[in-house]
Design goal:
Number of strands: 10
Radius of gyration: 20 Å
Bound molecules: zinc ion
Structural class: alpha+beta
Order of helices and strands: HEHEEEEEEEHHHHHEE
Distance between the termini: 27 Å
Number of helices: 7
Strand content: 15-25%
Shape: globular
Length: 279
């Protein structure tokens, strides 16, 4: 599932590729992708003729700002991809559910085998709150820089397992199962340590691990796992999976202490960690 580093990689790619382009036509090939709209026609009418002015990110959501104040919101869900086609003639990947054609400069395509992703157009902000998911997002670990003391205050306000808290989008936006495991490994902290039990040194380690892990993953253009469901705008896989220390490494040696990485299941999710160097 794409998390902050993957979505941020796509945001940066989109910035160079689609800003300034005018939308000529929109084709919806699977209505589930635009399920928040009453019809595919309604979705199309909101976009056609408009120009993309900006690309922002809120947590795992991509926000494509239009010149009239509307926002095209894209959520990749479990398996969604945005793909750039230089020409309409390029062969469409299987599961291409929506196609945006620009007046000049090819297409932007939404591909999503598992169809948990979606696209929708949110009205101009003055029309009211866009959507509750965005209104309640927590701080952004890369954009909203804060002191470790402030982070300590936020952590201490909860009495929750660290992994659950890192994955709570209302606490911090953009972290999912994979990066939560990597961040906690880098911090040397267990998934089930209570957020209000950390020493000042541990808080500093956790904050640094969160920022550095995510920044490094963005630098390496995200993680593509064996299913290769994450691809960038140009169809390329990321590089960060080779740096993973804990995630998906059950039974392998910890790269820090040589103990064996273990996997536990809780709440339907797998957690990978080193029982020796994470306390
Ligand atoms: Zn270890």
């Amino acid at each position: 599932m794409p998390e902050l580093p993957e979505v941020e990689t796509i945001r940066r790619d989109l910035q160079g590729e689609v800003v300034g382009r005018k939308i000529k036509s929109v084709e919806v090939r699977n209505g589930r992708t635009v399920r928040r709209h009453p019809s595919a026609k309604h979705f199309r009418a909101r976009l056609e003729g408009h120009t993309i002015k900006s690309i922002d990110r809120a947590g795992k959501y991509l926000l494509l700002g239009l010149e009239d104040g509307q926002t095209l919101v894209v959520h990749l869900g479990m398996s969604g991809q945005l793909q750039r086609a230089k020409s309409a003639k390029e062969t469409k990947a299987p599961h291409t559910h929506a196609v945006i054609t620009f007046t000049q400069g090819g297409q932007l395509r939404f591909v999503d085998p598992r169809t948990f992703g979606e696209m929708f157009v949110s009205a101009a902000p003055e029309d009211g709150p866009a959507l509750p998911e965005l209104a309640h997002l927590g701080f952004d670990p890369l954009e909203d820089v804060m002191s470790w003391e402030k982070f300590w205050v936020l952590l201490s306000a909860h009495r929750s397992g660290l992994k659950a808290l890192l994955m709570d989008q209302e606490f911090v936006a953009g972290i999912g199962n994979m990066y939560a495991d990597e961040i906690l490994f880098a911090a040397g902290l267990r998934y089930d340590r209570l957020s209000n039990s950390l020493s000042s040194q541990e808080v500093r380690r956790l904050y640094r691990a969160m920022v550095e892990t995510l920044a490094e993953a963005v630098k390496r253009r995200g993680s593509s796992l064996a299913d290769e469901q994450y691809r960038d705008l140009f169809g390329e896989v990321g590089d960060y999976q080779d740096q993973h220390q804990a995630y998906d490494r059950e039974g392998q040696a910890c790269r820090r202490c040589r103990a064996t990485i273990v996997k536990v299941k809780s709440g339907g999710r797998s957690t990978y960690f080193c029982d020796h160097c994470q306390v």
